[in-house]
Design a protein that fits this description.
Length: 436
């Protein structure tokens, strides 16, 4: 599947395009800005663009009003169709954010219930009780997502609701040619719904990808042949930055082996979780890491570990933003893309990742684990790559059996002689392709 060899570039469209935080109903054409970034996205080595919500909503996009209409603040359906055509012409896949667990209070069917109460034909689209009242004094109680009553939970057991959502997916495929979906809060979606959606999309477009947002627990609940193809790897998200900040590479090495190792109890060996160091919901990685020299190294780890790496727009040049200052700070509008040493390094990492069968499909094996150093092996039938990270300010000589004498560093093209081990320079990252 194309997703397994992808590098994802994530964009939060409403913030990226500088739309107002609340839907003011004023139609403004902002979508063409995305086309101005295509050259930058390609030069970064991305192969897929993941768009967070861009359909008509009350405010932030996760409060949908209309699944069939691009948000007025961004432009029109035709404008987005033009953007998708541009991305596809440049060899980039397109994934959209499917928000199927809940809608906004401005959703047309919920508005009908507000007006007609129990006489509305859509009252069973939601979890409603006419024996109570809402904080908005609607004259009825309804279930909101995790207590957020601006987000009205859909009744996914209702066949008409499922039909409406599936028709929206068909519409996005037919009109925009999308290649997959990120399923928002997939951990809230019933297995039966995911199974039906998987069967529907399997018949809709070959290699259509479902990637679910999950947090903790056994990801196999939501990632299997009857559910999502992939899920978000939040376990390793925390492990990545914590291992650098706490000088404890044992944390991330444990998680990676637990998830992708060769032992029979390892959970996700052979699967392709979406890996990331930040996104639209969390503090940017440049604001989390306590040592700025670790920034390129954590991206080295991201692209070297099993999974599909995702880069959040702006973070490729080290943009800072803290979630404690509000979600809007995480979803900034930039006038133009920036480039620096970090973007150049990520470009090299992406080129190496997408060209390597071991890095895309290989297993995982720890070779050296120290507080500030991690060396691991990625191997598949046709290739072997050793990834080495030294997060210390001092050189480190790693003694390990490389199983070969010579190698080439995929990042630099330079040959490397292992001998009895290898010296790692301060704050360094290596991708050694070895002789078999």
């Amino acid at each position: 599947m194309w997703f397994d060899q992808s590098v994802v570039y994530q964009i939060y469209p409403l913030g990226f395009c500088g739309a107002p935080l609340q839907n003011d109903g004023v139609a403004v054409l902002r979508l063409p800005k995305i086309k101005e970034w295509v050259a930058h996205i390609k030069s970064l080595g991305a192969t897929c663009v993941l768009f967070n919500p861009l359909f008509e909503s009350d405010a932030h996009g996760y409060d949908t009003r209309d699944y069939f209409k691009v948000d007025t603040r961004l432009g029109t359906n035709e404008d987005f169709k033009d953007v998708c055509a541009c991305l596809h012409e440049n060899g980039l896949k397109v994934m959209l954010d499917g928000v199927f667990n809940h809608v906004g209070r401005g959703f047309w069917a919920f508005r009908d219930v507000q007006e007609k109460k129990w006489d509305s034909p859509y009252k069973d689209w939601f979890h409603i009780s006419f024996d109570g009242n809402s904080a908005y004094n609607d004259g009825f109680w309804y279930e909101g997502w995790e207590g957020h009553f601006e987000l009205v939970k859909l009744n996914l057991w209702n066949g008409d609701v499922r039909a409406h959502l599936f028709e929206a997916v068909r519409f996005w495929v037919n009109e925009f040619g999308i290649d997959g979906l990120r399923l928002d809060v997939a951990y809230c979606l019933q297995p039966e719904f995911l199974s039906e959606l998987r069967r529907f999309t399997n018949g809709l477009k070959p290699d259509f990808v479902l990637m679910g947002e999950t947090l903790h627990g056994d990801y196999n609940r939501w990632m299997n042949d009857n559910a999502c193809h992939s899920v978000t790897n939040y376990e390793c998200y925390k492990g990545l930055y914590s291992s650098f900040n706490c000088a404890n590479m044992h944390e991330i090495s444990y998680s990676l082996h637990r998830q992708f190792g060769a032992d029979h109890w390892c959970l996700y060996t052979g699967k392709h979780l979406l890996s990331f160091v930040d996104n639209h919901d969390v503090t940017r990685i440049a604001s989390i890491l306590e040592n700025e020299k670790h920034l390129p190294l954590i991206y080295g780890m991201l692209f070297g570990m099993p999974g599909v790496p995702s880069v959040y727009y702006g973070s490729e040049w080290g943009e800072k933003a803290n979630k404690s200052d509000g979600d809007a700070t995480l979803r900034k509008c930039f006038e133009a893309p920036q480039t620096n040493e970090l973007t150049a390094f990520i470009s090299r990492l992406a080129a190496v990742k997408t060209a390597s069968s071991a890095l895309c499909f290989g297993g995982y094996k720890n070779l050296v684990v120290q507080p500030n150093q991690l060396i691991f092996e990625r191997r598949c039938d046709s290739e072997r790559v050793i990834v080495a990270i030294n997060a210390d300010s001092a050189p480190f000589y790693a003694h390990f059996d490389a199983g070969c004498g010579t190698a080439v560093d995929l990042l630099t093209g330079q040959p490397h002689d292992f001998g009895g081990g290898s010296e790692l320079a301060p704050y360094s990252c290596y991708f050694w392709k070895t002789e078999r």
